[in-house]
């Protein structure tokens, strides 16, 4: 019974706390649900006057936490809808796919370099500069090995996929990356162009990269490492073929000169 001695009824514009009402505007408003409780996204009552279009009590495959329909690139990461990232665009190969799936970006540089990379730190910096110039987010490291380190000791072991700049899958995770075979060759640069290189050939191909790294991510001990990647003096190092997806992508048994200019692989960490 309301305070005016009429039967309590939601919508009678009389707030009856004893009946569980916290508001009663006579109808749904921006501050009051049609069940006479205060508006709150997540209360499982859809209040269109408050801007809600859905309310499932929390994120669901079709409804975001803010009570709007789930949609990739709506600014809300909805894991229930299978989203793992949101970057505000539908571009591929930038760390977040057009379907809001996170991945690690991989590319071979658009510029060729000789063996004097400034060590592994200098090579990492070249990857970082290339990535930033292409507008890519994140931290990058070079797929190179020498006496001071290798990918297996320097890289973050990703549990999410690695993808090329066009969004094509390279590997499902770190374990897949080092199992000897890629899903596709790393044949695009940070600019989505073929990698840069000089015309020098080894084993009949010029589509080469410096790596000194075998498929397991450890050092290729059969060759030198251009004095820990600080020298372009004549000498030989190991590398890969950027047009290959089998073990040759990184472990090509052919002597490449430290004086040549070849691209390097760069991986988002």
Automatic annotation (TrEMBL):
Coiled coil: none annotated. InterPro entries: C-type_lectin-like/link_sf, CTDL_fold, DUF1554, Myxo_disulph_rpt. Gene3D superfamilies: Mannose-Binding Protein A, subunit A. Residues 112-238 form the DUF1554 domain. It comes from the Bacteria. Keywords: Disulfide bond, Repeat, Signal. Transmembrane segments: none annotated. This is Myxococcus cysteine-rich repeat-containing protein.
């Amino acid at each position: 019974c309301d305070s005016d001695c009429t039967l309590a009824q939601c919508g009678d514009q009389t707030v009856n706390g004893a009946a569980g009402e916290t508001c009663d505007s006579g109808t749904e408003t921006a501050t009051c649900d049609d069940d006479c409780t205060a508006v709150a996204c997540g209360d499982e009552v859809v209040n269109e006057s408050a801007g809600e279009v859905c309310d499932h009590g929390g994120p669901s495959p079709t409804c975001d936490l803010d009570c709007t329909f789930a949609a990739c690139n709506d600014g809300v990461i909805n894991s229930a809808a299978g989203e793992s990232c949101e970057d505000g665009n539908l571009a591929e190969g930038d760390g977040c796919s057009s379907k809001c799936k996170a991945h690690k970006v991989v590319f071979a540089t658009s510029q060729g370099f000789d063996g004097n990379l400034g060590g592994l730190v200098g090579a990492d910096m070249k990857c970082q500069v290339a990535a930033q110039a292409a507008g890519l987010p994140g931290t990058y490291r070079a797929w190179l090995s020498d006496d001071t380190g290798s990918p297996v000791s320097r890289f973050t072991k990703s549990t999410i996929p690695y993808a090329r700049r066009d969004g094509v899958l390279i590997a499902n995770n770190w374990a897949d990356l080092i199992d000897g075979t890629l899903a596709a060759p790393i044949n695009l640069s940070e600019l989505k162009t073929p990698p840069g290189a000089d015309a020098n050939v080894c084993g009949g191909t010029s589509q080469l990269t410096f790596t000194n790294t075998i498929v397991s991510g450890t050092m290729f001990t059969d060759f030198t490492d251009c004095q820990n990647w600080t020298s372009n003096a004549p000498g030989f190092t190991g590398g890969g073929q950027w047009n290959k997806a089998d073990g040759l992508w990184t472990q090509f048994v052919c002597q490449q000169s430290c004086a040549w200019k070849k691209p390097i692989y760069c991986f988002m960490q």
